[in-house]
Amino acid sequence: MASNDTSPAALLEGVRILDFSRVLAGPWATQLLADLGAEVIKIERPGTGDDTRGWGPPWLRDAAGKPTAESAYFLSTNRGKRSLTLDLASPDGQRLARELALRSDAVIENFRAGQLAKYGLDAATLRQAKPALVYCSITGFGQTGPDAERAGYDAMIQALGGLMSITGEADGPPQKVGVAAADLMCGMYASSGILAALLRARATGEGETIDLALFDSQLAWLANQAMNYLVAGTAPQRRGSAHPNIVPYQPFACADGFVMLAVGNDRQFRSWCELAGRNDLAADERFGTNALRVQHREQLVPKIEATMASRSRAHWLGACEKAAVPCGAINDIAQAFDEPQAIHRGMRVTLPHADHPAVPQVPCPLHLEDHAVGADRAPPKLGEQTDEILRELGLAPEEIDDLRERSVI
């Protein structure tokens, strides 16, 4: 977010989100909302906080180089929020949480189905008191069905939802994706649903209750692989990094390393054949269209492999770029952040933190012409804004001290 006084307002300025969620799916959704300008109050357990605070190493180091209590995992998904510690099992904690909820535009939580009802913090109770409230529940399997009370974590959802069956080499074991993709995609669905419901609430005064399941969202974003099954009736299998519907679209070994060749149409295939000196492949009727190349994958790919192995990565990257054939280096994460394009687009920033002058962050990738994007607040220390938020609720210093002595906050 720009620091000068003339910077434009954020899209969600004036929107308050009360965030009871932990770990990744919910916090990922609320971090995006914070990046878009919403005020996000994160409710955490006194003493321990969000589970991900302890998911290290690595840890953030303070100005003296000593590890802090903030894990890299926690820092990845809680930018732009204020942290309030609150014991929801206590009557005072429940009272304060309800008051905050009724002063908020949206509530998001990822407790097990029905668990917050005993605290009076469920959707039915809060929306009866405030019909315009948007309430989003994220669970492993949803609020209904035979698995509704079952806990769900990313890796098991990737397994149950079919993703692991299509990830990995064909002759190897199933693998999960290298990041918590089920959680992250669920968080994106959550933010979209919340924004749509907030838009309706502003127009009509009526909020919404959102029931979002990790399992459902995992099935939903199987995308073409889901449709491959639904149309053909056959479950897709693992192909490593090869594409089930496009050929050639996979990594290839060069003389000194690998590149990803992603030929997406027939024109690009003919262009690759020309630059590679393989016009014989373009003329072969077996490879004339993508559908035919998929059908004759086993005959075509070895020929491309032999050709790619004859020249260096630099040769193929330069030749393909000149001919507008999609081809990219296979970077590690350090190399990815060092790409000139990543540097130009500002995909690494720092934010000030209570224990460190410059906390690294990967910013929101949205670039808007007329509105600011990107939270200017580093992920909070546990309970960092507790007193501040309670004062905003009208509590006197002695009341806050009393709550702390009774371990309510």
Give me some keywords for this one:
409 residues; six-stranded parallel β-sheet; three-stranded antiparallel β-sheet; 13 strands; 37% helix; elongated
Description of the molecule:
The protein has 409 residues and is of the alpha/beta class. The protein is built from 17 helices and 13 strands. It has a 6-stranded parallel β-sheet with strand order 5-2-1-6-7-8, sandwiched between helices. A 3-stranded antiparallel β-sheet has the order 9-10-11, with helices on one face. Strands 3-4 form a two-stranded antiparallel ribbon. Helix 1 (25-35) crosses helix 6 (181-204) and helix 6 packs across helix 7. The chain is elongated.
Q: How would you briefly describe this protein structure?
A:
The chain has 409 residues and is an alpha/beta fold. It has helices at 25-35, 72-75, 91-102, 123-129, 154-160, 181-204, 214-220, 223-232, 266-275, 279-283, 290-295, 297-308, 313-322, 333-338, 340-344, 386-392, 397-405; strands spanning 16-19, 39-44, 59-61, 67-71, 81-85, 106-109, 134-139, 208-213, 249-254, 257-262, 327-329, 349-353, 356-361.
Tally of strands: 13
Helix tally? Answer: 17
Shape category: elongated
Largest sheet: 6 strands, parallel
Strand order of the largest sheet: 5-2-1-6-7-8
Percent helix range = 25-40%
Please trace the helix and strand order, writing H or E for each element. Answer: EHEEEHEHEHEHHEHHEEHHHHHEHHEEHH
Radius of gyration: 25 Å
Q: Which structural class matches the secondary elements? A: alpha/beta
Uncertain segments of ≥5 residues (pLDDT<50)?
none
How far is the first residue's CA from the last residue's CA?
A: 31 Å
Mean of residue pLDDT values: 95
